[in-house]
Amino acid sequence: MDIKKIGIIGCGFVGSSIAFDLASGELFSEMVLLDINQKRAEGEAMDLSHALPFSSPMRIYHGDYKDLAGCGIIIIAAGANQKPGETRPQLLGRNKRIIIDVVNQILPYNRSCILIVVSNPVDVLAQVAYKASGFPPGRVIGSGTVLDTARLKYLLGEYLAVDSRNIHAFIIGEHGDEEFAVWSSANISGIDLDDFCALKKNCNLEALKQDIHEQVVKSAYRIIENKGATYYGIAKAVGRIVECIVKDQNSILPISVLVDGHYGLHDIYMSLPAVLGRNGVEEILDFALNEAEQVRLKNAAQHLRELSQ
Fold this sequence. Notes:
The protein has 309 residues and is an alpha/beta fold. The protein has helices at 13-23, 38-49, 88-106, 122-133, 146-160, 193-199, 205-227, 232-246, 291-308, and strands at residues 2-9, 30-34, 59-62, 71-76, 114-117, 140-142, 167-168, 171-172, 180-181, 187-188, 191-192, 251-259, 268-277, 280-284. It folds into two domains: 2-142, Rossmann fold (3-Layer(aba) Sandwich), CATH 3.40.50.720; 146-308, Alpha-Beta Complex (L-2-Hydroxyisocaproate Dehydrogenase, Chain A, domain 2), CATH 3.90.110.10. The strands form four sheets. It has a six-stranded parallel β-sheet with strand order 3-2-1-4-5-6, with helices on both faces. Helix 1 crosses helix 8 and helix 3 packs parallel to helix 4.
């Protein structure tokens, strides 16, 4: 396995944006692009290659499944796009079949990689990929609520007039309508969120929490309605996930992971904070939730189970 070689399956808006973000960095020496439309993959590879003189040396090319041999990481961004007004669960029927087919075509050439599923609904499809692959659960993850958490941090940063990178808070549960913010542990550089708000003038965050949460949940729907698809935010989110793995950072991100015994839940992929390093998921964190948050987590789990049936 070569951690410096990455494969991306699916060259639509999301896959190509992820490829651009990764090609702009210095994490990889080789990138192979696959798409059911081979001309699209070839065109993306050419376009990205022409930008390399502005970044760092890398071999970028289009290929087929045999070219995934040796990839340390394979990103699955294949699937149908979410249409305006369509919920993520409504995508499931179409995308489940695609994920199974993709994984089955990877297996003859690569059984040692880390799989990162980006296709929606990502928590359910990460579990589909896990079952289809037979890989250890730590090597099959979904992009989870990394982007949702970034949206939360952005909105809080705007309201509180602080750098969003100083905000420490999570969206967990699922990447979808049942996701929720863990307000009980949110803080600004170690200062409890409520205490920080008390230091600010005219801060009425408690009254705005529900509004902020709704903005996070509805962000994707609004973007899709306005421009047809979301891709920049998720590209940066996946780039961060990949960086944690390649650099063995052991960073904590809310990704889609197999939950088995955490919070009394079993055999289900959900978005929870996990330590992410060279081996994939190193540890899932059972951090404290208040009673209301525990109820919401169980509701999200029930929702995901119903989707999976």
